[in-house]
Amino acid sequence: MIQATIFTCVLCLLSIVRINCDEHTHRYKEHDEVVLWMNTVGPYVNHQETYNYFSLPFCRGPKKKISHYHETLAEAIQGVELEFSGLDMKFKVDVKEPEEYCSVHLSPEKTESFKYAIKNLYSYQMYLDDLPIEGLIGEYKRHDSDGRESYYLFTHREFRIGYNNDRIVDVNVSSSSDYRELQPNQELKFTYSLLWVPSDVKFEDRFDKYLDPAVFKPRIHWFSICNSFMMVLFLVGLVTMILMRTLRRDYARYSRDDFDDLERDLGDEYGWKQVHTDVFRPPSHTLLLSALVGTGYQLAFVSFIVIISAITGELYTGRGSILTTGIYAYALCSPINGYFGGSLYAQHRGRHWIKQCLVSAAFLPSLVCGTAFMINFIAIYYHASRAIPFGTMISVAAICLFVILPLTLVGTLVGRNTRGQPNNPCRISPVPRPIPEKKWYMEPSIIVLLGGILPFGSISIEMYFIFTSFWTFKIYYVYGFMLLVFFIAIAVTICVTIVCTYILLNAEDYRW
Q1: Which residues does 354 contact at the CB level (< 8 Å), separation at least 6?
Q2: pLDDT tens sequence across 5-40
Q3: Strands (E) located in 17-130
């Protein structure tokens, strides 16, 4: 398990090195070809609804088609659909006058397609030297005087590309200088111009222009972290009071030398002491519990690795780099899942350890993949670019079968052999103690729901920023704050777990 964990860290470091080494591949000589990739179109207000760029009746340039394949598994999962634009672009070669590269005859069907896209604020996304380019495809106007609707399509794009020595460091595109009102049965000519401008921007800083400080305000982050930290202090104080006062007094009274075993069993006992012979009884769903515990450990390690990788490697600069790192880290952290889940299952004398291993390995992947595949059918029906190709499904299934499952098995074997022996501090009664009736708010299901409020509250602000970047065109980059929130969430979860466990045991409910 330790070797596999080290291998995971090495692989993540290699992914960071790969991203940093990309700096040496983005170099051009004068007159070298610069490729403009067309990616997707979709509503600007919904970043997740995307379609292939040429699903609208745009035309391609005259250049010979360059094939593109998904460079990473994450690209295919995220719906990246790069296709060559056909534009003839050369490094440091200006095209000052508008140059026509293709034309489209607008049939009534094509006209309606463009009108629908313009009315729904469709925007496009392109990539030039891995730099994203975004903009609206047209403009919609409604005339109040007669109620007439006009649709204007931007037919000219002016590229202004900044370069620093032999590297491209900035791309700006203007589309509003020339537009045509859409009318059926007309010929639309698409043109472009190109201007190369020297820039002082360093190559490693070229993504800074895409980082929006107005969205991720440090003051709000620090305020949120301070509030969460105060919550941690309160919970730590509460746990300390429980452990240092209540439990210490009760345990000292219970473990006096003048009490023999019979007096301990039948004497003046109350609260948690009455269930001390039942609390380590194997739970009714030991297999599921061990799978959940193992998966939790694995997710904690994966989250830490991805956050550290994002901080040190600036993964947001590469398409799908964060998702790729997450997939690799999750697959190669599988021994952690097997180790902790398998050892817990063995400590409770579980006999079906192979079944437990399979459930641990497949629990989270089956939930995620099952949900994704169901949504994928909807994406396929609407011909969205988010539809996952069949080959990608096979790749994900292969990772689960040939990487995650064997490594989980290795971790399970190690855990059973090193920590599989029960180490209960007291004996277990052969007859289960009846659980007394209690108030409705003392039921485990209610305590689970209430106990989740504080951990969620400690991460809610950061989750808001994460989903803001997920649903919009913003790049999330404040991973230092995420790391702090990650540790705060762990501390809050631990404290809440201790408090909830103590409350249940005082209610004489020893169920796991």
Answers
A1: none
A2: 444 444 444 444 444 444 456 889 999 999 999 999
A3: 36-43, 51-52, 83-84, 95-105, 122-128
Alpha helix (H) ranges present in 350-475?
353-381, 390-399, 405-419, 444-451, 453-471
Identify whether residues 200 and 113 lie together within a single domain.
yes
In Å, how far are 85, 158, 189, 219 from 101, measured between CA atoms? 10, 13, 8, 48
57: three-class secondary structure by DSSP = coil
pTM: 0.83
What values do phi and psi take at 100, rounded to 5? -75, 135
Q: What is the DSSP string of 185-234?
A: T-EEEEEEEEEEEE----GGGTTGGG--TTTS-HHHHHHHHHHHHHHHHH
Cα end-to-end distance, the chain, whole Å: 27
Other C-beta atoms lying within 10 Å of the C-beta of residue 497: 13
Neighbours of 377 (CB within 10 A): 9
Contacts of 20 (CB under 8 A, 6+ apart): 313
Q: What's the domain count of the chain? A: 3
- How many beta carbons lie within 10 A of that of residue 141, not counting itself? 11
How far apart are the C-alpha atoms of 260 and 263, rounded to whole Å? 5
Find the domain containing 509 and state its range.
216-280+436-512
Domain contains 305: yes
Integer Cα distance of 43 and 4 in angstroms: 43
> What does the alpha-carbon distance between residue 305 and residue 321 come to, in Å, rounded to a whole number?
13
Residues 233/493, Cβ–Cβ less than 8 Å: no
Q: Is the separation of the CB atoms in 409 and 73 below 8 Å? A: no
Instruction: Characterize 64-97 residue by residue with b for buried, 16 or more Cβ atoms within 10 angstroms of its Cβ, and e for exposed.
Output: eeeeeebebbbbbbbbbbbbbbbbbbebeeebee
Residue 270 sits in the same domain as residue 323: no
Burial of 235 (0-12, 13-18, 19+ CB in 10 A): buried
Q: In terms of domains, do 318 and 399 share one?
A: yes
Residue environment code for 144-163, b if the CB has 16+ CB neighbours within 10 A, otherwise e? eeeeeeebbbbbbbbbebbb
How many of the other CB atoms lie within 10 Å of CB of 370? 10
- Let me know if residue 400 belongs to a domain: yes
Residue 330 lies inside a defined structural domain of this protein: yes
Examine the domain organization and report whether 152 and 24 are in the same domain: no
- The percent of residues in the chain predicted with pLDDT above 90, rounded, is 40
CA angle 234, 238, 244 (to 5 degrees): 140
Query: Do 298 and 265 fall into the same domain?
Result: no
Q: Model confidence at 506, in pLDDT bands (50, 70, 90)?
A: confident
